[in-house]
Every structure is written in structure tokens, then in C-alpha cells.
Specification:
One of its GO terms (biological process) is negative regulation of transcription by RNA polymerase II. By secondary structure, the protein is mostly helical. It has six helices and two strands, in the order H-H-E-E-H-H-H-H. It has a two-stranded antiparallel ribbon with strand order 1-2. A hairpin with a 2-residue loop joins strand 1 and strand 2. The two termini are 90 Å apart.
Length: 238
């Protein structure tokens, strides 16, 4: 029972393989016929004599070779502006012939040809216009107005190279020395007087920090001027 089933399976596989090969051969024949019709389109073939049905295989093969030779000769007679090969790619519902473009072609004309959806058109792709040379006088004026590329900001100004003082920190404000005993009620100053003295001193401390900050910013004057020039140049373009 198993042997007969194996024979049946082998027969089914062979039959399916034969049908598949015949379908492939049919597709190949249709493609060859389409190529022959496209190659011979626009030409009128005049048959002087029809081949007899009992013609020998050698004569048929010689006639086929003669026709292929003629077709190859016609292929070499194309004009320089024509394209002989096609490579049509279909994307979604549109097609484009990629054979008219080379590997250095920009993407924009390829997309435009895809939008036209006419892959069999023999028109060459449009060439991009050659840019006009710039006026040297105008370019020189632009170069003078343009700020050169900056890769490093200028260093801050240092008065003394050997001075390692931190210019951000001001000198401490001197505090008056008053001696009193806080436990002695008669000798100790009142709380209001102490508060006023502390407030006056801390105002001086705050002002000293503000003044020292301005002095420190003056050391970066070149960098600030450079940033201001860059900002003004950008605002001119806007």
C-alpha cells in the first residue's frame, strides 16, 4: 500500500514539474516575441518566399540566424541619442526606466520621471543648468563683510602673567573691631545699633562683588565684541 502511494506521489510531483516547466517556457516564448516585436517595430519586413513546411532544419536555422544577424545589425544602427536597454522599475502604481540614468544622477529627475509614469519614453533626462560664475567684485565685497570662521575665542586679558589671583572674588571688606562683653548689660551696645552696623557692612560687601564682576567682565571685552559682531551680521541677513 505504501509503495503504491509513493509511486502516486512521484507521479504527481513529475506531473506538476512538467506543468511548471511548460508554463516557464511559455513565458520565455512570450517575452522573446515581445522583444522581437519591439525591435522590429517601425520596420516593414517583405517576405519574398514563404518557407515550405518540409524545409530542412538546417535551412530553418540558417534563416533564423540571418534574421538574428539582421536584428543585431539594426541594433548597432541606433542613433547616439537613443537608448537600447531598458530597466523598468515599478513602485506602487507608477513605473520609471532607470536605464536612462547613471549612478551619479540626482534623485530629483528620477522622482520626476517616476511621477510622469512613462517608462517607454525615449526622451533623454533633462540636464541640470550650469551655474553662472560669480562676479569677483561682488564676492570680494561679501568676503569683506563676512566674519571669518571662528574656532577659538580670544583669551581674557591678564594684567600680570605671573599673577594667579582670582579676579572674580573681591577683596574682603574690613570689619571694625569693637570689644564688649555681651553678658554686661550696661557695657553692651543695643541690638538695634548692632543690626544697623551689620546692614551697612553687608551692603558694602554686596557692592564690592558687583564692582568686581564688572571688572572681571572687562577682561573678556574682545570675546564680547566678537559675539556682538556675529549677532549683528546674522541680523542683517534676517
Amino acid at each position: 500500500m505504501s509503495a503504491s502511494k509513493n509511486k502516486q506521489n512521484i507521479a504527481e510531483v513529475a506531473s506538476a514539474r512538467n506543468r511548471f516547466e511548460s508554463a516557464l517556457q511559455h513565458l520565455v516564448d512570450r517575452r522573446d516575441e515581445g522583444q522581437e516585436s519591439s525591435d522590429e517595430g517601425g520596420e516593414i519586413d517583405i517576405c519574398l518566399s514563404e518557407p515550405s513546411p518540409i524545409q530542412s532544419p538546417s535551412k530553418r536555422s540558417s534563416s533564423n540566424r540571418g534574421r538574428k544577424r539582421k536584428r543585431a545589425k539594426d541594433d548597432f544602427d541606433y542613433e547616439p541619442g537613443q537608448y537600447q536597454h531598458t530597466y523598468i522599475m515599478k513602485l506602487f502604481d507608477r513605473s520609471v526606466d532607470l536605464a536612462v540614468f547613471d549612478e551619479d544622477s540626482p534623485l530629483y529627475p528620477i522622482c520626476r520621471a517616476w511621477l510622469k509614469n512613462n517608462p517607454h519614453s525615449r526622451e533623454p533626462p533633462p540636464r541640470s543648468p550650469t551655474p553662472e560664475p560669480e562676479n569677483p567684485a561682488q564676492s570680494s565685497e561679501e568676503e569683506t563683510d563676512r566674519i571669518p570662521d571662528i574656532y577659538k575665542m580670544p583669551p581674557p586679558i591678564k594684567q600680570d602673567p605671573d599673577d594667579h589671583t582670582d579676579y572674580r572674588i573681591p577683596h574682603p571688606v574690613p570689619q571694625p573691631k569693637t570689644y564688649f562683653f555681651i553678658s554686661d548689660a550696661e557695657d553692651a551696645p543695643p541690638a538695634e545699633g548692632l543690626l544697623m552696623k551689620h546692614m551697612e557692612r553687608w551692603k558694602q560687601v554686596r557692592q564690592s562683588w558687583v564692582d568686581q564682576g564688572r571688572i572681571n567682565e572687562m577682561r573678556f571685552g574682545e570675546s564680547m565684541q566678537l559675539l556682538r559682531d556675529i549677532f549683528d551680521c546674522q541680523m542683517k541677513d534676517v
